[in-house]
Design a protein that fits this description.
By secondary structure, the protein is of the alpha+beta class. Helix content is about 15%, strand content about 35%. The strands form two sheets. It has a six-stranded mixed beta sheet, covered by helices on one side. A four-stranded antiparallel beta sheet has the order 2-3-4-5, with no helix packed on it.
């Protein structure tokens, strides 16, 4: 039977198309996704604005990211701000933070589509109460210089055992689709976002 189908390219093409739609046959030109990792260590970054006399302003920094992509890190009112790209401090992400006092993890995951960075995933630690307890939130930021580098998804890493998987799926499917006017999507169990 397969020899018969192999001789009938039209029939074989139709069967291949059906298998592809059903997800049983990989697309030859399907996008390939991968991750790369860099560190945000402020002591290795360039200080572009020193901290103000006010103790809640931690200054502004420029760090090197994946393949030299600019990473902008700022702290104000005990909250972090992180953005990316050649004009990072003017992108929407540079003005986004969690409402609670927070810090960020030093490991930054870059999601790559066919080798090109499309999004980042960064773990944030918001304060939960006066005792010093913190949460753990994964923020997915799409990388689109020119005013569209912004948060697109949030995952509560304590409420979702598969938080990293959920964040990667959000990055791979949502990056490049947001015009940065809507709130980031809450993915999985809302946890702290309730």
């Amino acid at each position: 039977m397969f020899a018969f189908l192999a001789g009938r390219s039209g029939v074989l093409g139709s069967i291949s198309a059906c298998l592809l739609v059903l997800g049983l046959l990989p697309a030859a030109n399907a996008a390939s996704f991968d991750s790369a990792y860099t560190k945000i260590k402020l002591e290795n970054c360039t200080l572009i604005r020193p901290p103000a006399d006010e103790s809640t302003d931690g200054g502004r920094f420029q760090c090197a990211g994946y393949k030299g992509i600019r990473v902008y890190v700022a702290e104000g009112d005990l909250r972090m701000f992180v953005s990316f790209g050649p004009d990072a401090e003017h992108e929407p992400a540079a003005h986004s933070t969690l409402p609670n006092f927070n810090t960020v993890n030093e490991t930054l995951e870059w999601r790559l589509r066919n080798g090109a960075p499309i999004a980042t995933i960064l773990r944030w630690f918001p304060s939960l109460d006066e005792s010093g307890k913190t949460g753990s939130i994964l923020i997915v930021t799409q990388l689109m210089p020119g005013g569209r580098t912004c948060w697109i998804a949030q995952v509560d890493a304590q409420a979702n055992k598969n938080a990293n998987v959920l964040a990667r799926q959000a990055a791979d499917t949502m990056a490049g689709t947001s015009n940065c006017t809507q709130q980031p999507a809450i993915i999985g169990n809302p946890g702290i976002f309730r």
